[in-house]
Every structure is written in structure tokens, then in C-alpha cells.
């Protein structure tokens, strides 16, 4: 993967829309920098963010699975 990703490449990497990506950036999820007049995201920042989100999702899914098992829902 390249060191710097364009907004379109970053959105594709996260499988989100560009507008959602911009909302993430504005919320401070990860920094951007300018190359000329274009905004770029460092691939390592993006990968770190994705790992954190994936870990959080796995944790929630594990909790839901445990709860379903306690309730005898067959999961």
C-alpha cells in the first residue's frame, strides 16, 4: 500500500463514502495533510484506525454472542 492515500483511496480502503470519510476526519479520527491542494491520509494512520474499529466490532459481537448463549437463543 502507498504511504499516502487520496480521499477516494482512503474511502475505498475503509469501504465508506467520501462524505462519511470527511466526517471521520472532522471528528479527529485520524489526521490528514496536504500535498499541494489535495488532502491525503497516511496509510499507517488509516490502517491503525481500521484495526481499532474492527477490534471494537469483534468485542461487541462477542458480547452479543455470549448474551445470546446465556438466553438460550442457539448462537
Give the tags.
alpha+beta; Multidrug-efflux Transporter Regulator, Chain: A, Domain 2; three-stranded antiparallel beta sheet; 3 helices; 15% strand
Explain what this protein looks like in three dimensions.
Helix content is 60%, strand content 15%. The N and C termini lie far apart (37 Å). α1 packs across α2. It has a single domain, classed as Multidrug-efflux Transporter Regulator, Chain: A, Domain 2, CATH 1.10.1660. 7% of the residues are buried. The model has no long low-confidence stretch (mean pLDDT 93). The chain is α+β, with helices and mostly antiparallel strands.
Class by alpha and beta content: alpha+beta
Q: Which CATH C-level class is it?
A: Mainly Alpha
The succession of helices and strands, N to C, reads EHHEEH
Helix content: 55-70%
What count of helical segments does DSSP give?
A: 3
Quick check: average pLDDT? 93
The 3D shape can be described as elongated
Distance between the termini: 37 Å
Estimate what percentage of residues fall within beta strands: 5-15%
Strand arrangement, largest sheet?
1-3-2
CATH architecture: Orthogonal Bundle
Low-confidence stretches: none
Main beta sheet, described?
Answer: 3 strands, antiparallel
Q: How many independent structural domains?
A: 1
| E-strand count | 3
What's the gyration radius in Å?
Answer: 17 Å
Q: What is the chains' assembly state?
A: single chain
CATH topology: Multidrug-efflux Transporter Regulator, Chain: A, Domain 2
Amino acid at each position: 500500500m502507498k504511504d499516502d492515500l487520496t480521499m477516494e483511496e482512503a474511502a475505498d480502503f475503509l469501504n465508506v463514502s467520501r462524505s462519511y470519510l470527511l466526517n471521520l476526519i472532522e471528528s479527529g479520527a485520524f489526521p490528514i495533510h496536504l500535498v499541494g491542494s489535495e488532502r491525503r491520509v497516511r496509510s499507517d494512520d488509516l490502517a491503525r484506525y481500521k484495526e481499532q474499529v474492527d477490534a471494537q466490532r469483534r468485542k461487541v459481537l462477542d458480547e452479543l454472542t455470549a448474551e445470546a448463549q446465556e438466553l438460550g437463543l442457539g448462537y
